[in-house]
């Protein structure tokens, strides 16, 4: 007697209720995310008591506006000791860079900033003001005097000297931060 074998097939017609979704462009796969992290270059930060995201905001805002970021860190140090919740001048100066909403309400509106205790918005408003002063007075030390006094009266103040000295110290604290 001859025996023959016929191949058998598994039944695959059973329906599944489980949905399978494909990754979208906004959701990188694990491999893509790993490759992205591996290709990110290290970033330069400063040894100041501010988080990475805020430092990057300050550095980028400074870069876009042609200002040395160390000056911005120095103003933040001098004005609030790096405290984003600082309130000074009997409540009229707010946040990291001690911006006065009374004088800068139009600027805030133009920039879309509503909360000066938000350090990102505070920096945005402060830098815009500093750029205006730099344009008006021509040098960063004169602009820093005006930032503090509201105008430049022809002399460099102790405040401006202190900010410039702090900026020099801050420049010396640069370090490379590898985000991988």
Any overview of this molecule?
It is a single chain. The protein is mostly helical and 180 residues long. 49% of the residues lie in helices and 6% in strands. The protein contains 7 helices and 4 strands; from the N terminus they run αβααββααααβ. The protein has helices at residues 30-39, 52-64, 69-80, 101-111, 119-137, 140-149, 158-171; strands spanning 43-45, 87-88, 93-94, 175-177. The chain has a two-stranded antiparallel sheet. The chain has a two-stranded antiparallel sheet with strand order 2-3. β2 and β3 form a beta hairpin. The longest helix has 19 residues, at 119-137. The protein is globular, with a radius of gyration of 27 Å.
Percent in helix: 40-55%
In order across it, which strands form the biggest sheet? 1-4
In whole angstroms, the N-to-C terminal distance is 70 Å
Task: Catalogue the unreliable spans.
Answer: 2-21
Report the strand count: 4
Q: SS-based structural class?
A: mainly alpha
User: How are helices and strands ordered from N to C?
Assistant: HEHHEEHHHHE
- Integer-rounded radius of gyration: 27 Å
Largest sheet: 2 strands, antiparallel
Instruction: Name the shape in a single word.
Output: globular
Number of helices: 7
Percentage of β-strand residues: 5-15%
Mean pLDDT: 85
Using brief descriptors, characterize the structure shown.
single chain, 180 residues, mainly alpha, two-stranded antiparallel ribbon, two-stranded antiparallel sheet, 7 helices, 6% strand, globular, disordered N terminus
């Amino acid at each position: 007697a001859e025996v023959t074998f016929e191949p058998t097939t598994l039944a695959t017609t059973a329906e599944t209720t489980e949905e399978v979704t494909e990754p979208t462009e906004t959701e990188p796969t694990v491999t893509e995310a790993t490759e992205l992290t591996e290709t990110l270059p290290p970033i330069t930060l400063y040894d100041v008591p501010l988080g990475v995201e805020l430092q990057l905001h300050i550095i980028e805002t400074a870069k876009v506006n042609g200002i040395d970021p160390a000056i911005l860190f120095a103003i933040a140090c001098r004005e609030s000791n790096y405290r984003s919740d600082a309130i000074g001048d009997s409540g009229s100066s707010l946040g990291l860079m001690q911006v006065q909403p009374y004088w800068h309400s139009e600027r805030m509106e133009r920039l879309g900033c509503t909360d000066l205790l938000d350090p990102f918005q505070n920096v945005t408003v402060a830098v815009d003001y500093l750029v205006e002063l730099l344009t008006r007075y021509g040098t960063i030390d004169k602009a820093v005097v005006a930032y503090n006094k509201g105008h430049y009266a022809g002399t460099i103040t102790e405040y401006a000297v202190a900010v410039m000295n702090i900026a020099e110290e801050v420049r010396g604290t640069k370090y490379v931060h590898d985000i991988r």
